[in-house]
Amino acid sequence: MTTGRLLGQALKGLTRYRLRTFFMMAGIMVGITVLTVVLSAGMGARERIMERVRVFGLENLMVWAGGPTDQTRTGPGLGGGSTVTATLKLEDAQAISDQVAHVRDVAPFAREGQMEVQWRDRSFTSPVFGITPEWQDVWDWPVDRGSFITAEDNASMARVAAIGPTVIRELFGEEEDPLGQVIQVAGIPFQITGVLGEKGTSAGGGDMDNRVFVPLNTYLRRVANQDYLTGIRVQVEDIREMESVSADITALLKERHGIAPGTPQDFRITTPTEVTAMVEEMQGTFDLFLILVAGIALVVGGVVVANIMLLSVGERRGEIGLRMAVGARARHIKRQFLLESAAVAFFGGIGGIVLGMAGNVVMERITETPALFTWHVLAAGLLFSTVVGILAGLHPARKAAALTPVDALRS
Amino acid sequence: MTNNMLIEARDLTRSYQKEGTAGVQALKGVSLEIREGEFVAVIGASGSGKSTLMNLLGCLDRPTSGSVILDGTEVSLLDEDALAEVRSRKLGFVFQSFHLLPRTSAMENVQLPLLYTDAPDLEAPARSALEIVGFPEDRFDHHPGELSGGQQQRVAIARALVNDPEIVFADEPTGNLDSASSQEIMELFTELNRRGRTVVVVTHDAEVARYARRIVSVQDGRIVSDEAGSGPATTEVTS
Which of A15, A16, A328 lies nearest to residue B116, judging by beta carbons? Predict the structure, then answer.
């Protein structure tokens, strides 16, 4: 007997006992609905993490001034913020560029919290960065009009600025053309030479479009009056070199800063791997709990199916006996009941996926975090429902196949 | 000329051993031969062992001792799958309670035995079997619940015939029918036999046994008589 015919018998068996089939499907549906919602939420969270890591840049690492235990750090989770550690210098950036292998670009920068930015009677509080032209390359920073900070700007300590769209909106609104205008940054006049494009949200969750960029030398000498950096962004030639570059930079800076083994460092390095871990931690641990809930719901669904199938086998002894009398082998009986339970679970799974998609909409409203329904979620729903169906059907099917024709017919 | 031997049962016994109770011996040494083309009634009271005998002859059960040779094959030595194969190819069964699948059309019920063979076509043999038993074509799609008892039993008989078996076993085929339907069904068996089909009917009812041409009486696990019945003379099958 072909599997196709057996499947036909199984499906007919299911339509013959509709109420029973409905209850079994409902049992599986609940579990798969929960699973779909949980996985979709998980995929959505994952996507956001990936998005943030993409923003950080997969080929980049950050060297921050200030050690891992530096309590003066006040910035957001990813370590931006202000620091009083004054040991990271421009020469360190040059040394990394000269001495560390597999480094493509080195972009040193300095920033000191937020600063007052004014144009005419309007003002805005903005993070002001002193940067070099490499900054644009390592961040792939988009420029709408004008130009980014150039090497000449930096060499001549020019008072020029490239500013983000949020700043433009706040200071100029829609009507005025910001290019060429002069703004006051901490009381010092800067001419706007670049209008930046949208960059979005940073890995730490902050707005990256509210920034004002000025040449690094201008910033160090004319704005902040300091000789130390906040950090150095380093782009590697190949993602696979990330760990070795990170180790080489650590060794180089320890040597340059004269840090003895066993004493705390005065800098720290953030790689995309750490960003991923950090953002995942920020997402919280409730995913694991929900997956547990989905698992329990599926087990309960499986138990429901197993019980109803067992009941069904008991009530259909006559049918089983008759099938055996007219030539069904034990394996045909076993497969028929297995297929019934697998099919009912499969269809319950489809129902659960559909309900889950509806649940996603509700969950998005409640939690205000986007769910992402991908083919992974679809495949997981179909796979788990069918597997649960087969597992739930094993015992009832074996029991049906173990009947002898005489015993089965006697009922 | 005698017809071919179909069943040769020798010294069959069947005991049922239930845990904690003394064993019950349902058959106590039965030998029986059935030839092609016969119409045999096995008659006996409830508990006489007649159904046990049918189960053994029909390969639904195995004897405790003794042998059953069916169409030249010693079936008591076969494993479960091989027995199912024998039932599939050579035997047809009709039961007192019809055993039709509920909410399933007459047509599909008749097709059931074909599912367990490699028959490429299900429709044509089922159609022809339903025609043989005189089941009205306009009810092929009806479910058992929409049919009278007599019609249901006709469907069951068609199902027993659809694989073109060597023998049709009927266990109290009229037990759930009124007397008019009973008569029709027994006339149908008579007609099937007249066309050459070997029929074994198990019954407690002398009225039913009356249709057979040979009556085997079973009492207390043994055959007590084996004599010609009042049915028409045995057909010579030339094949």
Answer: A328
Say yes or no to pLDDT of A79 above 60. no
Look at residue A210 and give its three-state secondary structure. Answer: coil
Question: What is the domain range of residue B161?
Answer: 37-58+91-228
% of chain A residues with pLDDT over 90: 61
- The model's pTM: 0.76
pLDDT in tens, B58-70: 999 999 999 999 9
Residue A267 pLDDT > 50: yes
Region A54-72 average pLDDT: 77
Q: For residue B151, what is the domain's CATH number? A: 3.40.50.300
Cβ contact B99–A321 (<8 Å): yes
**Does the beta carbon of B14 lie under 8 angstroms from any beta carbon of chain A?**
no
Main-chain dihedrals φ then ψ at residue B193, nearest 5 degrees? -65, -35
State the total domains in chain B. 1
Region B187-213: mean pLDDT is 95
Chain-chain contact of B87 with A325 (C-beta, under 8 angstroms): yes
Contacts of residue B218, defined as CB under 8 A and 6 or more positions apart, other chains included, come to B30, B42, B43, B44, B48, B49, B50, B53, B224
Model ipTM? 0.93
User: Mean of the pLDDT values across residues A103-117?
Assistant: 91
Check CB contact of B85 with chain A, cutoff 8 Å: yes
- Per-residue pLDDT, averaged over A29-48, amounts to 88
Query: Residue B99 and residue A319: Cβ atoms within 8 Å?
Result: yes
> Which stretch of A81-95, A234-248, B23-37 has the lowest confidence by average pLDDT?
A81-95
Determine the 3-state secondary structure of A119 from DSSP: strand
Which residues in chain B have Cβ-Cβ distances shorter than 8 Å to A321?
A: 99
Residues of B in contact with A330 (CB under 8 A): 80-81, 84
**Minimal CA separation from A284 to chain B, in Å:** 53
CA distance B83 to B86: 5
Best A326, A333, A404 member to test B by mutation, with max B CBs in 10 Å, is: A326
Please report the pLDDT score of residue A80 as a whole number.
45
DSSP-derived 3-state class of residue A177 = coil
B102 lies in some domain: yes
Q: Does B5 map to a domain?
A: no
User: Is residue A70 classed as helix, strand or coil in its secondary structure?
Assistant: coil
pLDDT-based confidence at residue A211 (cuts at 50, 70, 90): very high
Q: Residue B207: inside a domain, yes or no?
A: yes
Q: Which of B81, B97, B99 sits opposite A329 (nearest CB)?
A: B81
Return the ∠ at Cα B213 (arms to B210 and B219), rounded to 5°: 65
Is B14 among the domain residues?
no
Assign residue A180 a region: left if phi > 0, alpha if psi is -120 to 50, beta otherwise? left
